[in-house]
Amino acid sequence: MRRTFTIASLVLALALGVLGLAGCSQDDGATSGDTTTSDELVVLKVGASPTPHAEILEQVVEDLAAEGYELEIIEYTDYVLPNTDVEAGEIDANYFQHTPYLDDFNAENGTSIVSAASIHFEPLGLYAGKSASIDALPEGGKVAVPNDATNEARALLLLEQEGIITLKPDAGIKATVNDIAENPKNIEFVEVEAAAVPAMLADVDLAVINGNYALSAGLSVTDALASEASDGLAADTYANIVAVAEGSEDDPAIQALVKALTSEKVRTFIEQQYGGSVVAVF
Question: H helices within 93-246, ranges in order?
Answer without folding.
Answer: 99-109, 149-161, 211-216, 233-237
